[in-house]
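writing this on my phone so excuse typos. first protein, seq and then structure
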Amino acid sequence: MSATPAFPSQTAPRGPRQRPRRGSIPAGFDGMVHVLDADPELTEALPPEAAAAAAGVVAAPVQVVAPGPWSPPDRGDPATLGCLVLEGTLIARTQLWNGAAAAELLGPGDVVLPWMPSPGGATVSTGIEWSVLQEARIALLDRPFVVQVSSCPEIASTLPARLAHRARALDVLLALRSAPGIERRMLVLLWVLAERFGKVTPAGVRLEMPLTHQLLAELAGARRPTVTTALAQLRRQGIIEFLTEPRGWILRGQPPSELPPSLRVRVTRRTRRPGRDAGSVTTGGGPGA
């Protein structure tokens, strides 16, 4: 049986959160954030009382980053664990020496280590470009954060698990890039993204992301003109539609049979967010066409 985490007890009803205070805010950050309030899944293994106590203590510097290029903060201290995405969507784009690129989408809950060297080393010349697709809030898991959670392995152990989950997701994406048939590949890709970022509505599964054809090509391991042709064919079949406001896609029908059964179940069981309509739909060229 695990020891009780060394956080202050919290027996009184929880009131409004006070602003986190913890020394000076690092340059390039916009303030501090209660990390466990922003990402409550980090405390899922804790008893409710311990989770409530920890949520009021554990804080980290936070950046709010508008869509566009992102310059990650310097690691500085080797004790810094990484950056935790709290809201929004990031793009990690790996560039090869010949101009080819592969992209990865990152969202809430993902842990990234943007200061790590490129994996190609001296053998293959690569570089990673970071950008924000949808406005993001990013927390720096720095030394004070590490000290705060060091007495609670139930929290600390979730962070390497997040990295492992991200590696598994990349395995799926890598396998998808080698799948034959570009139309089917694009359809499966959109459903994979919908499982992570979409929501179910009466009109279909909404994927509210400004995914350009170039970005989709980099995710799918294809060329942009080929992706444009494949998406046009899927639209003609009525399988997908382009959303104009907000930009994105609607996926109609059932998830493709190529998806694992567990993923198909998660997609079809997602609930609709209250107060949101189905949006306007057009059969135009789609984002970035």
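second protein below, same order as before
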Amino acid sequence: MRKNNSCIALYTQYHWGLTSRQSLVFCNHDMININKEFCLGGHAVFTVQNDATGEHRTYKIKVSKPNPRYPNPAFFVGLLAGPDNVSSYQYLGMLNATTGAVTLTRKSRMTDDSKAVKGVRWTLAKIWNNLEIPEGIQVRHVGKCGCCGRALTEPESLDRGIGPICWGRLGH
């Protein structure tokens, strides 16, 4: 018997100082436990898997340090494209923190039609718009805090993708 995949939306305050409410989306039994705060934490790594095809892709979202070119945080999306799951990420594009849109740049090696680009855009649109992830698609973080990158061990921290110290720092 298959478990119910229905998603639940909870609301949390977005930590970059905006006043709008942001959503945390997760399914029971850990099918998805990725949220905007996790994605914008600076160290987000997550895998999207299609159970029907067996295909999966792992993405990393990193934040820039303030510098003359990017005085405000800039978010860069990468795709795991090699055997080393720490350093084999290929630059994919830039993430708009407000809309969740991924924009390809001159340094992007992929096109709008590539499966990897379509996959990350589809996934982030679901997260940013608080939409349900369909049955048979899994989105999972890799067990590290989306803000500081430390390993997560507590079930509650694993569910939200953010550890207790960083969660408290975000005002929760």
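The radius of gyration is 15 Å. thats all i got for now
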